[in-house]
Amino acid sequence: MKIATWNINGVRARLDGAAAWLKDANADILCLQELKCEDAAFPGEAFADLGYNVATRGQKGFNGVAILSKLPLEDVSRHLSDDDGNDQARFIDAVVSVAGGALRVASLYCPNGNPTGSDRFDYKLAWMERLQAYAAAHLAAEEAFVLAGDFNIIPEPEDARFPDNWTGDALFQPESRAVFRRLVNLGLTDAIRAVEATAGSYTFWDYQAGAWQKNNGIRIDHVLLSPLAADRLTDAAIDKRTREWEKPSDHVPVVVDLAF
DNA sequence: ATGGCTGCAGGATGCAGA
Known about the structure:
Blueprint: E1 2-7, H1 15-25, E2 29-33, H2 44-48, E3 53-57, E4 65-69, E5 74-77, E6 91-98, E7 101-109, H3 119-140, E8 144-150, H4 174-185, E9 189-190, H5 191-195, E10 204-205, E11 217-218, E12 221-225, H6 227-230, E13 233-238, E14 254-258
Parallel strand pairs: 1-2, 7-8
Antiparallel strand pairs: 1-14, 2-4, 3-4, 5-6, 6-7, 8-12, 9-12, 10-11, 13-14
Helix pairs in contact: 3-4
The structure holds one DNA strand of 18 nucleotides.
């Protein structure tokens, strides 16, 4: 089973590219972030025509997450724990049936948090704490699950081409790195780090200042696996090809293969 | 380069992104 995550930076602006990528990659499940549209404006029919079931949590103008799946999506939830229902559209999860049981898949768009020291930064850390509680609860239930998305955190210096450029940024603050570390240390597996030497492996290159041409990238899109999911991990890769496409997203897909 | 693009809302520029 091939599961991918992709911050597409506007699903309507990127529809052709998303469809082309799905046909080529033949992903079973694709978690999308930064839809930048309300649910009613989500181009669901285009994905249905490609054979995907669709679950979305949209928001006008920015944020927005979705799960596309060839398998039926069950038990869809659009809110993190303690979410009052009026929160930003950054979380959706669902369950699919797999051989021997069920697999929960969450599509996450963690807050950016800039500028450091602002309310936005506090919100970022608080949101990550809620995500940690979510992960802990599902670990306690011994579920097989996948946290896939744009975490907006550079975990280690090797996850940036020029780490010194990011020392003042919310994505690379000690507090941001620490909350990510605590999440992983609950017992999750960073799929990319598990299968390759991650130095030089990036998932985001800014549109500005020729960042792509200079390979001035960062690794901020991650797939974290619970132990029962990690047991099934056979491959993980970053698909840099899309960054060369016409009108690309500034993020590229991350893909994992699980032997279900 | 002190954010140098990009998408979106709205109908000009401002906001958000990372």
